[in-house]
Design a protein that fits this description.
By secondary structure, the chain is of the alpha+beta class. It has a single domain, classed as L-fuculose-1-phosphate Aldolase (3-Layer(aba) Sandwich). The protein is built from nine helices and seven strands. It has a seven-stranded mixed beta sheet with strand order 3-2-1-4-7-6-5, sandwiched between helices. Helix 1 packs parallel to helix 6 and helix 2 crosses helix 5. The longest helix is centred in the C-terminal third of the chain and has 24 residues. Zinc ion binds next to loops.
């Protein structure tokens, strides 16, 4: 027996909660966005119109095709960088949720030859290798935004099988198998960057999370009770528990 597809309204409300949570956690500010793949059609995804995440309401959520065009006939102003999401969903069928952020703490690792490393256990799900996408390599001088489908696809290529790619002088994109997982990665990636920066300032030898430790932590599963506990906490802090626990009436 197949699993019942989630209710669309419930998914929309969870996406609104995700917007509020990322804003409350300081991962996004006026800019940045989060999307989910449409629960009933894998060729579509749900993303707010161009609003700051803290202000997003259920009626702001639009439906987009993989080329970035609105699939719901709405004329609202879309995010210029919606092509980040198009590229990530098109690139990998298993990607179910995507976050794009300009979080300050990760930016040093997007412009330096010192690579981002995973150094704290809460960030272990982002993997061992964090690629850096540089728009300059293929597109030369641009406004540094991902404003075309070609740029979105190139970023997705750089992402490869990783869950996070840094974007030179810009921020990061995370792509994961669930909304909860992408929130967890996006919240702990900047914290990981801050701890690593602090350790680099201390000097001496730095010990990173090992691939074996990452594998053990991954075996706990991304959708476990621990994540549900975190989601409840984040939503309470953001004052949006009612969106997270919306139920079909
Ligand atoms: Zn951006």
């Amino acid at each position: 027996m197949g699993q019942e597809a989630p209710d669309l309204n419930q998914v929309i409300h969870e996406l609104v909660a995700a917007n509020r949570i990322l804003a409350n956690q300081g991962v996004v500010d006026a800019y940045g966005h989060v999307s989910v793949r449409h629960p009933h059609d894998k060729n579509l995804f749900l993303l707010s119109c161009s609003r700051s995440p803290e202000l997003v309401e259920p009626e702001d959520i639009m439906t987009f095709r993989m080329d970035g065009s609105p699939a719901d006939g709405r004329k609202d102003n879309p995010y210029v960088e919606r092509f980040i999401h198009c590229g990530a969903y098109e690139h990998d069928d298993k990607v179910m949720a995507v976050v794009h952020s300009h979080a300050l703490a990760v930016l040093p690792f997007s412009i330096s030859s010192t690579p981002m490393r995973t150094v704290i256990h809460t960030a272990s799900h982002m993997g061992e290798h964090i690629p850096v996408w540089d728009s300059q390599d293929k597109f030369g001088d641009t406004g540094l935004l991902v404003s075309t489908i070609e740029q979105g696809r190139d970023l997705a290529q750089a992402l490869g099988t990783s869950k996070v790619a840094l974007m030179r002088g810009h921020g990061f994109t995370a792509a994961a198998h669930s909304l909860g997982e992408v929130l967890k990665i996006s919240i702990y990636l900047p914290q990981n960057a801050q701890v690593y920066l602090d350790a680099l300032r201390l000097g001496g030898t730095i010990k990173c999370v090992t691939p074996g430790e990452m594998a053990i932590r991954d075996s706990f599963g991304p959708g476990g009770r621990e994540l549900a506990r975190a989601m409840d906490y984040w939503a309470m802090r953001a004052g949006c528990s009612h969106y997270l626990h919306y139920k079909k009436s």
